[in-house]
Write a structure and sequence with these properties.
Layout (H helix, E strand, L loop, with lengths): L14 E3 L2 E3 L6 E5 L6 E6 L3 H20 L2 H17 L1 H12 L3 H21 L6 E3 L7 E8 L2 E5 L7 H13 L2 E5 L6 H13 L6 E3 L4 H13 L3 E7 L2 H10 L6 E5 L4 E5 L5 H13 L9 E7 L3 H13 L19 H16 L3 E4 L15 E4 L6 H4 L6 E7 L2 H9 L3 E2 L1 E5 L3 H10 L4 E4 L14 E2 L2 E2 L12 E8 L4
Parallel strand pairs: 7-8, 7-10, 8-9, 10-11, 12-13, 12-18, 13-16, 15-16, 18-19
Antiparallel strand pairs: 1-2, 3-4, 5-6, 6-22, 11-21, 14-15, 17-20
Helix pairs in contact: 1-7, 2-4, 2-5, 2-6, 3-4, 4-5, 9-10
Length: 490
């Protein structure tokens, strides 16, 4: 069956600036394609610096009034936006699957996940507390108050086109900031649909602005925000090289940055682990969105005593996964996002086998299904000199590394410039405490493969970036602290 939206006007093709749908100032457009078939879905505005500047102008005009609303008034608007997202869950899920390729059940699940951030930060808007500092001198009162940082530029990836932009926009709006946003060129339609629903929920004109741009036009468009001193914060999810570029190029205006960057997550299975639970956890963590998530396990370390058994159990389960287009209700793995992604996966698998690895499941492209499909893959006898150990594969490939003792596993897990997520399975309570503290990561899953929650702080250390999204901590990145000292009170 084809993916069809009941409310077809959710497929928008123009920029959303100052409450209006506008073509790019150049009149140029670019195609958005279905990764399952390679067919064109529609064309959207191909924006440049002039469009980015127009979005910032609108956000600057809207900022004073939005900032001055009562927190409960902003919260009410966000709650209406959340309700509209959930009311359109089927259509938004279909749109995600159409432009990104993930199975329809995952697309619908992403809508609920993204909406949970909107609901969470709607409530957090009313809990932005300051402090009265204990009196230090007679006649003086000292207070610390939190204020919205100003205009926020949100730049989001293609793998979760709704959740990533929702968890950036929601805290910004809750804090009293206005937003300019650019979604990934592969998946701009979901962000535009969210902007439409935000407008219908009562988000005032200029408070949320979304522009789209092709790969070629994106750098100069975003560059305008990097140079503009009115943009006080950038929040970005994507690759580490791009994150470093944003940090460098925004330095002249000393913007606040939140960077959720690349990962190379280890997944450790100790001898004392519940192997069935570890396999289930790995499947949940690795094969969500076909392995195209920043917290996917990229290196699976299995202790030698259970290596063979774990490899057998995992290979059986992986071999049973259904690869199909999102339009197939039984699909568990969809297409990769594009041919570049597919080529990288194939290169990693070929490199591994050339270095002596064995393929236990999958290991090949599936051209009979469409242009961008790769079979879920398990590779044994992986070693540190293989590309898939040092580079994030970002696909449905599980390499199994063997280790002998805890110290070796922890050292190997930390032997990477990245530090976003780590996972391990053990039933030894003392080991759980030791390894949790020893792993160099912003997120640690202990006997658990599904980590994300709107109530939890999400972010990394080392070259996986800084700042946190979600939770009560996620609002702080959109606020500045003002110290007020009032004298003459004696």
């Amino acid at each position: 069956m084809a993916l069809v939206l009941e409310r077809k006007e959710l497929i928008c093709s123009k920029n959303f600036i100052d409450g209006q749908w506008l073509a790019a100032s150049s009149g140029e457009r670019f195609a958005v394609t279905d990764p399952a078939t390679g067919e064109r879905i529609t064309e959207v505005a191909d924006s440049g610096p002039d469009d980015a500047r127009a979005a910032t102008d609108a956000a600057a005009r809207a900022l004073p009034a939005w900032r001055d609303l009562l927190p409960k008034e902003r919260a009410a608007i966000l709650h209406r936006w959340n309700a509209l997202m959930l009311a359109h869950q089927d259509d938004l899920g279909a749109l995600i699957s159409l432009e990104q390729g993930k199975p329809l059940a995952e697309g619908r699940g992403e809508v609920a996940y993204g909406a949970s951030y909107v609901a969470w930060f709607a409530d957090e808007a009313t809990r932005i507390y300051g402090d009265i500092i204990p009196q230090q001198q007679r006649g003086k009162r000292m207070t610390a108050v939190k204020e919205p940082i100003g205009i926020v530029a949100a730049i989001t990836p293609w793998n979760f086109p709704l959740a990533m932009i929702a968890r950036k926009i929601a805290p910004a709006l809750a804090a009293g900031c206005t937003v300019v946003a650019k979604p990934a060129e592969d998946t701009p339609l979901t962000a535009l649909a969210l902007a439409l629903l935000a407008h219908e929920a009562g988000v005032p004109a200029g408070v949320l602005n979304v522009i789209t741009a092709s790969r070629e036009k994106a750098v100069p468009a975003v560059g305008n925000w990097l140079e503009d001193a009115r943009v006080r914060k950038i929040t970005f999810t994507g690759s580490t090289p791009v994150g470093k570029y944003l940090a460098r190029e925004s330095a002249n205006t000393l913007k606040k940055l939140s960077l959720e960057l690349g990962g190379n997550a280890p997944f450790i299975v100790f001898d004392d682990a519940d192997l069935d639970a570890a396999v289930a956890g790995l499947l949940a963590a690795k094969f969500r969105n076909g392995g195209q998530t920043c917290v996917c396990p990229n290196r699976v370390y299995v202790q030698s005593g259970v290596y063979a058994k774990f490899a057998e159990l995992l290979s059986q389960r992986v071999g049973q996964l259904k690869v199909a287009p999102a339009s197939d209700p039984s699909a568990q793995i969809g297409p990769m996002i594009n041919s570049r992604a597919l080529d990288k996966i194939a290169r990693h698998v070929d490199d591994a086998t050339s270095h002596g690895a064995r393929i236990l499941a999958g290991g090949k492209r599936l051209p009979e299904l469409g242009p961008n499909y790769f079979a879920p893959t398990v590779i044994s006898d992986a070693t540190a000199d293989m590309l898939l150990c040092s580079e994030e594969t970002f696909g449905p490939v599980v390499p199994l590394f063997r280790f002998e003792d805890e110290a070796e596993a922890v050292k190997a897990a930390n032997d990477t410039p990245f530090g976003l997520a780590s996972y391990f399975y053990s039933q030894d309570v003392k080991r759980i405490d030791r390894v949790s503290r020893a792993l160099e990561a912003g997120i640690v899953g202990v006997n658990e493969g599904a980590l994300a929650s709107e109530a939890a702080p999400f972010g990394g250390v080392k070259e996986s970036g800084y700042g946190r999204e979600g939770s009560k901590y996620g609002l702080d990145d959109y606020l500045s602290i003002k110290y007020v000292c009032q004298g003459g009170l004696d």
